[in-house]
């Protein structure tokens, strides 16, 4: 499950931005492909699996192969930057399909851009590998670039080293000035919405950890949500000027919504009977459905707030982006987060959202 190490936005000044990275991916002239070594070098691997020409006419002026990357954001755009790290044994199981892992490593970062209403621009990749396994790298890069191409985002640099498997991606996006979706804009009386469905990723995780049992077909369906989340970029773009605050759901609905409430100095009431359960989760007992939807994590849906007068606009944005949205509660002036049923009675919440230093 993902945790934010930093997330910030800066206004691009001037025409060019130089992104400096720690040992940017480069092919050394002193170490050409096949240089006197039975094993591929770091630079061989970069050249084979992570070096591609920049798209002509795009914002990337210089990508992989130098001491820094050159990006040219459009004047008047704000640059959005976010980083996420995936560590084997913490965020994913040893032996996870490398193609799915390449997809997810980028998807969780793109989800942050979606929550900011940003258009993807470029990304860097820092990769620690226990060994130079070319079969693994070929599949990993295929999953990574499959998603990158789908959203027109380019790899512009990074770093590789030997060590326990660790994947760290930093994404760069752009959003028109003053139009970024933030966590601190919620207003008392706003509706609370979520995109898509919740809880299937948590259900798959529990089954893979042998804490509950699923049929092979059910596990396969739920595991797709865990291993191949789809960032809601189109919805984030469509919500500009409509949503008052937004966040992506990486650690669980209640915990992530809590960040909006904290930054906005407000509270919320969530109706547990309106939660959009994942297709596989929907067949589970009621207590599991609620717990996994409220505190599941790894959903990578958007949770956002908007004024009641904009409900039609929210639904139009959802139709435009091809993603369902569900109104699940409202923002309140008091600084508390309550969960009730449709009758207004309090619902007990057993678990809590994921915390890297609070969860085992």
Q: How does this structure look, described?
A:
- With 360 residues, this protein is an alpha+beta fold.
- The protein has two domains: 6-176, 2-Layer Sandwich (60s Ribosomal Protein L30, Chain: A), CATH 3.30.1330; 191-340, PurM-like C-terminal domain (Phosphoribosyl-aminoimidazole Synthetase, Chain A, domain 2).
- It is built from nine helices and 14 strands.
- It has helices at residues 42-49, 98-116, 134-150, 200-208, 216-227, 233-238, 253-264, 286-295, 311-321; strands at 6-11, 17-20, 60-62, 68-71, 77-87, 119-129, 154-162, 166-176, 191-195, 245-248, 267-271, 302-306, 325-332, 337-340.
- The protein has a six-stranded mixed β-sheet with strand order 10-12-9-13-11-14, with helices on both faces. Strands 1-5-8-6-7 form a five-stranded mixed β-sheet, covered by helices on one side.
- β3 (60-62) and β4 (68-71) form a beta hairpin.
- α2 runs parallel beside α3 (134-150) and α4 packs across α5 (216-227).
- 46% of the residues are buried.
- Mean pLDDT is 84; it is low at 1-37 and 354-359.
């Amino acid at each position: 499950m993902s945790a934010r190490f930093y997330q910030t936005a800066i206004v691009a000044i001037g025409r060019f931005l130089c992104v400096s990275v720690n040992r940017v991916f480069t092919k050394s002239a002193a170490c050409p492909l096949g240089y006197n070594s039975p094993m591929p070098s770091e630079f061989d691997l970069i050249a084979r699996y992570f070096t591609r020409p920049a798209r002509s006419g795009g914002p990337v002026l210089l990508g992989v192969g130098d001491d820094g990357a050159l990006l040219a954001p459009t004047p008047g755009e704000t640059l959005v930057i976010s980083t996420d790290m995936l560590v084997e044994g913490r965020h994913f199981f040893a032996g996870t399909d490398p193609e799915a892992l390449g997809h997810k490593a980028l998807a969780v970062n793109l989800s942050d851009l979606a929550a900011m209403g940003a258009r993807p621009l470029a990304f860097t990749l820092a990769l620690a590998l226990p060994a130079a396994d070319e079969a693994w790298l070929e599949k990993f890069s295929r999953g990574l670039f499959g998603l990158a191409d789908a959203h027109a985002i380019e790899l512009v640099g990074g770093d590789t080293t030997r060590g326990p498997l660790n994947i760290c991606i930093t994404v760069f996006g752009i959003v028109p000035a003053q139009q970024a979706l933030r966590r601190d804009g919620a207003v008392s009386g706003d509706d609370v919405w979520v995109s898509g469905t919740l809880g299937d990723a948590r259900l798959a995780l529990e089954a893979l950890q042998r804490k509950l049992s699923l049929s092979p077909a059910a596990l396969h369906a739920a595991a797709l949500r865990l291993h191949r989340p789809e960032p809601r970029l189109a919805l984030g773009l469509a919500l500009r000027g409509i949503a008052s605050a937004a966040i992506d759901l990486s650690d669980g609905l209640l915990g992530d919504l809590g960040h909006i409430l904290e930054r906005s100095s407000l509270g919320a009431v969530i109706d547990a009977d309106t939660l959009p359960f994942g297709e596989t989760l929907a067949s589970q007992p009621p207590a599991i459905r609620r717990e996994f939807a409220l505190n599941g994590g790894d959903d990578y849906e958007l949770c956002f707030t908007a004024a009641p007068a904009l409900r039609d606009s929210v639904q139009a944005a959802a139709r435009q982006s091809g993603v369902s949205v569900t109104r699940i509660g409202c923002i309140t002036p008091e600084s508390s987060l309550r969960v009730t049923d449709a009758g207004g009675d309090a619902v007990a919440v057993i678990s809590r959202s994921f915390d890297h230093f609070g969860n085992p």
